[in-house]
Amino acid sequence: MKVFRIITITLFILCVNFGLNAQCSITLDAGTSGCYISGGQSRSTITVEVGWTNAPTGQNIIITGPPGSVPATRIITPGTITVQYNDGISTFVNSTQFIVSPQLVAFEIPANGTTGLNVSAAFSSTASCNATSNPFNAPTACQPLACASGNLGGHSFF
């Protein structure tokens, strides 16, 4: 009887410890593109690899870009999602997809030389499960292509 109690208590402790080790985690790895002109402004794209383990059931990962990023946030729904496709006529097809780790998201920021930027992420209802990316710098503004009135300008490649 004592052996049975010791085995039961040991199994209980192992199960509890296993549950504690299965806590969620998020990792972020961010990088920037070079400078490009968009809408007459110098811009850069931030690409972020978002990884996670043990996502809490039914929660999204909310990724927040640095100040001035477009869009300001991105959302990943880990696990199984339902997607509805339209064939262009009037037929809709529902399908399920399984979203796995890691995923890539992107933000557009001003290319203005700002230093020490980062991206943050957290599960929607589990604030203790969060991450902040490695720091990165925005590239400096693009070299303007100045042309005299009535002339053409740009880059040519041979």
Write the layout of secondary structure elements.
Layout: H1 2-21, E1 25-32, E2 36-38, E3 41-53, E4 61-64, E5 73-76, E6 79-86, E7 92-99, E8 103-110, E9 120-123, E10 126-132
Antiparallel strand pairs: 1-3, 2-3, 3-8, 4-5, 4-9, 6-7, 9-10
Descriptive terms for the model:
158 residues; mainly beta; 4-stranded antiparallel sheet; flat; disordered N terminus
In short:
The chain is mainly β and 158 residues long.
Structural commentary:
The chain contains 1 helix and 10 strands, in the order H-E-E-E-E-E-E-E-E-E-E. The chain has 158 residues and is mainly β. The strands form 3 sheets. Strands 1, 2, 3 and 8 form a 4-stranded antiparallel beta sheet that branches. A 4-stranded antiparallel beta sheet has the order 5-4-9-10, with no helix packed on it. Strands 6-7 form a two-stranded antiparallel ribbon. A hairpin with a 5-residue loop joins strand 6 (79-86) and strand 7 (92-99). The chain is flat. Residues 3-21 have low confidence and may be disordered.
Shape: flat
Helix proportion range: 10-25%
Give the terminus-to-terminus CA distance. Answer: 87 Å
Largest sheet: 4 strands, antiparallel
Structural class label: mainly beta
Rg estimate, integer Å: 24 Å
Unreliable stretches (pLDDT < 50, length at least 5) are 3-21
